[in-house]
Amino acid sequence: MLPGRTPGSWSFALSLERIIMNDHRKLGRELGIFDTDPMIGAGLPYWLPAGAAMRKAIEDYVHELERRNGYLHVNSPVLGKRELYERSGHWAHYADDMFPPMNVGGEEFVLRPSLCPHHALIYRSRQRSHRELPLRLAELGGQYRSELSGVLGGLTRVRSIQLNDGHVFCPPEQAAAEVSAALDLIEAAHAQLGIRAARYRLSLRGDGGKYVDDPEMWAASEAILREVLKERGQAYDEERGEGAFYGPKIDIQIADPAGRENTLSTVQVDQYMPGRFDLRYVGGHRPAMVHRSVVGGLERLVAHLIEVHGGAFPAWLAPVQAVVLPLSDAELPAAEDLLRRCLAAGLRAELAPADRGSLGARIRAHRLVPYQLVVGPREVASGHAAVRRRDGSQAGEVPLERLAADSRPFV
Ligand SMILES: [Zn+2]
Fold it and tell me: Residue 79: enclosing H or E segment and its boundaries?
């Protein structure tokens, strides 16, 4: 069923890497964000402390954004029985991208290719009344793709994806409003992250067996997406053969410095899976399912953030938000105390003591850190720190609480 593995083409990937400016693979390793190891496998990067800190900041931000917008969070397992994916339609339409089943005690389990089937079952686990809808479920969870090793590289193409996913279950007549609300969230998140879409793409079905064969359903779902795009005055391109197997999508495309595009965020209307799982709400009505991802997979998002910001991330996202710089060893105890107060105030902070070099050298080594807190004799006497921003401007004596508040995505 699944395509065979071709030998890895790392040497090609590496030579390509050298010609791309601000490549996230090179910078990501230099900044201690992620790395890979052939013993773990291609397309299975791990997050180093700086990357894990960024990832947590993004997770917390998106979780809060969703919470404020009516989402309920759930957690579900990263695998399920083969029957689950037969029911969802993945087995018939998406098996080429799935890992082969694992046989355990006569049952077959599959690493999940998407979170949708689990969320459909969570919807179905209770009787749902009209009043409960729209039911918006969100989860940041693992999904897995059996990519060939030849196409893998860095964080943009991986086999293990931490996806910011969500599904809105609503009466079909509310689907347009929910699609539009999801686009609002996506646009808010992009502004917060400092990224800009390359373009919006209306991704439609193509020919062949990869797509559910139900022309009326496709036409109805496409009409919803077109209506929303028109109402928002949003420019977009149409592309056939880019839809999900169960329905059309609005994909928000991003581009890397070499101009190569990837889909980051997406909103999709699905009137297929609700039927496959026989989802209903009181009265026997069938809900529609709006699939959406506000920031996509965290791997691809962080790759893009590295390339866009070149490591100088917005303060709320920076792996280290503040560095404490004592002028000399004499200020070390005061600097250690300041570091403790930074950490207690919620800042990601570290200390660069005087034995690491001159003040200028230490400032250069921490040039990507948003706030540099210099502690000299005057600061020891006053009990405050002189705040220097990474652009070289002086912010003077700023209370730590203020600094911490300025380093959060929500106030
Ligand atoms: Zn989904």
Answer: strand 79-81
Q: Which pLDDT belongs to residue 400? A: 85
Residue 129's Cβ-count burial label (10 Å; 0-12, 13-18, 19+) is exposed
CB 147 within 8 A of CB 159: yes
CA dist., res. 63 & res. 65, Å (int): 6
pLDDT value for 411: 60
Is the separation of the CB atoms in 257 and 264 below 8 Å? no
How far is the centre of ligand 1, averaged over its atoms, from the C-alpha of 382 (Å)? 55
Torsion of CA 16, 20, 24, 30, to 10 degrees: 90
CA 165 to centroid of ligand 1, rounded, Å:
7
With a cut of 90, say whether residue 265 has pLDDT above it.
Answer: yes
Distances in Å between the Cα of 114 and the Cα atoms of 23, 60, 167, 180, 214 are: 28, 21, 12, 22, 22
Segment 281-310, tens digit of pLDDT: 999 999 999 999 999 999 999 999 999 999
The proportion of the chain whose per-residue pLDDT surpasses 70, expressed as a percent, equals 94
Residues 322-349, mean pLDDT to the nearest whole number: 96
Q: Average of pLDDT values for 149-178?
A: 91
- Supply the DSSP symbol for 355: G
32 neighbors 156 (Cβ within 8 angstroms): no
- Rounded to the nearest angstrom, the distance between the alpha carbon of 384 and the centre of ligand 1 is 50
d(CA 163, CA 113): 11
User: What are residue 131's phi and psi, to 5 degrees?
Assistant: -65, -25
* Confidence class for position 21, pLDDT limits 50, 70, 90: low
Q: From the CA of 230, how far away is ligand 1's center (Å)?
A: 24
| Alpha-carbon span 407 to 411, nearest angstrom | 9
The Å distance, Cα 157 to ligand 1 centre, comes to 19
Q: Average the pLDDT over 100-106 and give the result.
A: 95
